[in-house]
Amino acid sequence: MRILILGDLLGRSGREAALNHIPALRKSLKLDFVAVNAENASHGFGLGPDMAEALFAVGTDVITLGNHAWDRREIIPYIANEKRLVRPINFPPGTPGAGACLAVLPDGRKVLVAQAMGRLFMDPMDCPFRAIEELLTRHRLGITTQAILLDIHAEASSEKMAFGHAFDGRVSAVTGTHTHVPTADHQVLPGGTAYASDLGMCGDYDSVIGMTKAPALNRFIRKMPGERLSPAEGPATLCGVFVETDDATGLARRIEPVRLGGRLIPALPEI
């Protein structure tokens, strides 16, 4: 199975990069499945239902969120009815939506997508490791589903790496989101799970993690609140990874970076 996983869409430029590139990438990379993190798609904070629908329309199969899941209030009734939109699985019981989605491809193959949120330097949450352990008691890679993708939305690379090793050999891929900076540690772990600490953002990299520079700099230099942060709107770099899995085992054969447009050096896997 050929899978594209994209990091946090940041504002208008990030949304447009995804909307423009996903249809062509589905063809050129012969993709079977596309997952996108879009918790920052709406002016940097949250996701609007109309934006989710636009992403689904161009070929996104599942969208994940994160700590900004509820910044757009209208997403709350939408997520209650849209199974393809996934919020962190370790939110407290009773939170709207679901932390995992079992998607069925047109040919009958199944892909489980789940998201967990880290606890280091983040809001207090239930244990992400325990939540995924419980999920995997109901889904077996290569038996009940042909691929399992975990989005670990976390601040600390140590927590993300621990998460990857904890589930190595039981899921197809563990990829990090949230920090908006792509890491160069993409690899297939010893047990066969594809891993990357952070996918980076789909957004303008002439910025401070996607936000316009001047207000962000003032916060660091003067240590005073200033104007509200807003997304940089220059040309975006589409950032993510391409993962190829074995349908028989569900484990990864390879993982490679995907970077298109904007300021970062391009990277595209050969097919």
Q: How are the SSEs placed, and which strands pair?
A:
Blueprint: E1 2-6, H1 11-28, E2 33-37, H2 49-57, E3 62-64, H3 75-79, E4 85-86, E5 100-104, E6 110-117, H4 128-136, E7 147-153, H5 157-166, E8 173-177, E9 187-188, E10 194-196, H6 213-222, E11 238-245, E12 252-260
Parallel strand pairs: 1-2, 2-3, 3-4, 6-7, 7-8, 8-10
Antiparallel strand pairs: 1-11, 5-6, 9-10, 11-12
Describe the structure.
With 271 residues, the protein is α/β, with parallel strands linked by helices. The chain has a single domain (2-260), classed as Metallo-dependent phosphatases (Purple Acid Phosphatase, chain A, domain 2), CATH 3.60.21. Helix content is 23%, strand content 23%. It contains six helices and twelve strands. The strands form two sheets. A six-stranded mixed beta sheet has the order 4-3-2-1-11-12. The protein has a six-stranded mixed beta sheet with strand order 5-6-7-8-10-9, with helices on one face. The mean pLDDT is 96. Fe cation 2 binds at residues 39, 67, 153, 178. Keywords: Metal-binding.
- As an assembly, this protein is single chain
Q: What is the alpha-carbon Rg in Å?
A: 17 Å
**Integer count of domains:** 1
The CATH class name reads Alpha Beta
Strand percent estimate: 15-25%
- Distance from N terminus to C terminus (CA atoms, Å) equals 13 Å
CATH superfamily: Metallo-dependent phosphatases
Q: What is the annotated CATH architecture? A: 4-Layer Sandwich
Mean pLDDT: 96
GO molecular function: 2',3'-cyclic-nucleotide 3'-phosphodiesterase activity; metal ion binding
Pfam families: YmdB
InterPro entries: Metallo-depent_PP-like, YmdB-like
Keywords: Metal-binding
